[in-house]
């Protein structure tokens, strides 16, 4: 008979858990302080420890660490309240098998206990137990296997420390129904991350729908999200389902959520609170069971302080938040992502390419990737298109990356044709050529200052983005470099 130690300063909770587990065939013992719980753990053998995070004399993290010192193989499950979920990430890093949240659901308690016992008795348990969650696939044991492409081949986890921490949080929150805010720079893969959370949840067989709130017009945003009935506004020629109806049972990802009009935010708040909404022009309530994940480039706390976002809606969304690191902070993942994207390009173009020259990989590592994974993927797609066979060389890379190894334009004629050359290889003899070269140098210098962020460069140069793109294209053609 398996033995479970319950450590909780709530005597009623201890009694209820003990009674329930005994009916399920477990032998139990209880302790109401961390000190007494540790003493009982030392005195007697237990297969599982259920420990509340908040105890009178110490927190669950300290209890966990001391138990792991006594027996590194112990299965410790942390009981936590809603406000302590972020702390649960930390205790799992310190060796907790899993956590369960209050109010406790009996079936969940049993499922987690049985999962821990099953994994601890499996042949690979001792190999996989490295002081982290036994159910956690994001450990450090075999990077080439543990961080392989997911079965749907849509995303890659990575091997850097930041990637490991990121996906531990994903694994932690995915099975819950919590609303989530994803923060990250443009191109870091917020939609891909939202889909990864969806696929790791019990909603994975239901729809995943992504909406860019930045492109929803003020007039039609409510209709797109909640639907409308015929005649509710000009152009409403028939009834229409909203996105919340289509996503029922699944996950709805709202990108750039701060762009939603305030009146739509008010309706959205009701949907999150009551799980009900009305189509535009209708008085009939429609129920929905949709998990909402939102994303924003800006901090939503700053947005509500500026009056652009409802504070109460922010708190509804902020049950859990995840920050996705930019690519420049996870350089250890560069080689992995380059091969991942190249494999997909070879499939797309029906080509066989053998990887990258060493110089190319060094350029990838040196570059700051202001466009993050989106930019990286596009660079690989372009390089794959320009390469016919063998390894991808520097000549297949775009100018902003090659620019990292070029000298200023005035000296580039000494580079033997590598990288950027002068616009006119002959000595400059007229003002038009001199003006063109000066303009080119100015554009390149500004681009380097802003790390090749074209939007910022256009602002500094006081021209619009379209003009900047046209000038870049013009000078690339002069330099025999195709974009």
Describe the structure.
With about 475 residues, this protein is α/β, with parallel strands linked by helices. Helices cover about 45% and strands about 10% of the residues. The protein is built from 21 helices and 14 strands. The strands form 4 sheets. A 5-stranded parallel sheet has the order 2-1-3-4-5, with helices on both faces. The protein is globular. The termini are far apart. Mean pLDDT is about 80; it is low at about 125-155 and about 405-425.
In a few lines, what is going on in this structure?
The chain is 44% helix and 12% strand.
The order of strands across the largest sheet is 2-1-3-4-5
Unreliably modeled segments: 123-153, 405-426
Give the amount of beta strand, in percent. 5-15%
Helix content: 40-55%
Task: Compile the SSE list and pairings.
Layout: E1 3-7, H1 11-23, E2 27-31, H2 34-43, E3 48-52, H3 60-70, E4 75-80, H4 85-93, E5 98-101, H5 106-121, H6 125-128, H7 143-146, H8 161-173, E6 180-183, H9 190-199, E7 208-212, H10 221-226, E8 227-228, E9 240-241, H11 243-246, E10 251-255, H12 262-274, E11 276-278, E12 285-287, E13 291-296, H13 300-305, H14 311-317, E14 320-323, H15 334-349, H16 358-366, H17 372-386, H18 399-402, H19 431-449, H20 454-461, H21 465-478
Parallel strand pairs: 1-2, 1-3, 3-4, 4-5, 6-13, 6-14, 7-10, 10-13
Antiparallel strand pairs: 8-9, 11-12
Helix pairs in contact: 2-3, 12-14, 15-17, 19-20, 20-21
């Amino acid at each position: 008979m398996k033995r479970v130690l319950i450590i909780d300063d709530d005597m009623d909770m201890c009694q209820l858990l003990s009674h329930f587990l005994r009916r399920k065939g477990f032998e139990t013992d209880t302790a109401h302080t961390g000190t007494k719980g540790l003493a009982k753990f030392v005195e007697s053998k237990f297969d599982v420890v259920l420990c509340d995070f908040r105890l009178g004399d110490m927190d669950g993290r300290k209890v966990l660490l001391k138990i792991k010192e006594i027996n590194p193989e112990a299965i410790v499950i942390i009981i936590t309240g809603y406000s302590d979920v972020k702390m649960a990430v930390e205790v799992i890093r310190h060796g907790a098998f899993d956590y369960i949240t209050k109010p406790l659901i009996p079936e969940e308690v049993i499922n987690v206990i049985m999962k821990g016992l099953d994994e601890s008795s499996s042949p690979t348990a001792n190999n996989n137990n490295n002081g982290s969650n036994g159910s956690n696939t994001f450990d450090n044991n075999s990077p080439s296997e543990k961080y392989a492409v997911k079965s749907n081949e849509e995303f890659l986890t990575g091997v850097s420390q930041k990637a490991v921490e990121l996906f531990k949080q994903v694994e932690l929150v995915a099975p819950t129904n919590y609303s989530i805010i994803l923060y990250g720079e443009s191109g870091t893969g917020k939609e891909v991350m939202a889909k990864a959370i969806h696929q790791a949840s019990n909603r994975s067989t239901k729809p995943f729908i992504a909406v860019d709130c930045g492109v929803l017009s003020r007039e039609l945003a409510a209709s797109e999200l909640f639907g409308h009935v015929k005649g509710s506004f000009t152009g409403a020629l028939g009834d229409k389902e909203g996105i919340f109806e289509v996503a029922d049972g699944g996950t709805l990802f709202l990108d750039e959520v701060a762009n939603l009009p305030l009146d739509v935010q008010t309706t959205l708040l009701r949907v999150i609170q009551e799980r009900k909404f009305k189509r535009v022009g209708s008085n009939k309530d429609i129920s929905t069971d949709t998990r909402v994940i939102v994303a924003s480039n800006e901090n939503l706390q700053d947005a509500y302080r500026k009056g652009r976002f409802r504070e109460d809606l922010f708190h509804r969304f902020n049950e859990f938040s995840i920050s996705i690191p930019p690519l420049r902070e996870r350089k250890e993942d560069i080689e992995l992502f380059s091969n991942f994207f190249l494999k997909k390009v070879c499939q797309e173009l029906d080509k066989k390419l053998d990887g990258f020259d060493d110089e190319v990989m060094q350029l990838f590592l040196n570059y700051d990737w202001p466009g993050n994974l989106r930019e990286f993927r596009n660079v690989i797609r372009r390089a794959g298109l320009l390469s016919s066979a063998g390894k991808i060389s520097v000549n297949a890379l775009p100018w902003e990356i090659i620019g990292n190894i070029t000298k200023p334009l005035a000296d580039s004629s000494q580079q033997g044709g590598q990288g950027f050359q002068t616009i006119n290889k002959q000595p400059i003899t007229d003002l038009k050529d001199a003006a063109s070269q000066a303009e080119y140098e100015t554009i390149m210098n500004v681009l380097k200052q802003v790390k090749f962020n074209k939007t910022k460069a256009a602002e500094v140069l006081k021209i619009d983005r379209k003009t900047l793109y046209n000038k870049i294209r013009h000078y690339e053609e002069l330099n025999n470099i195709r974009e």
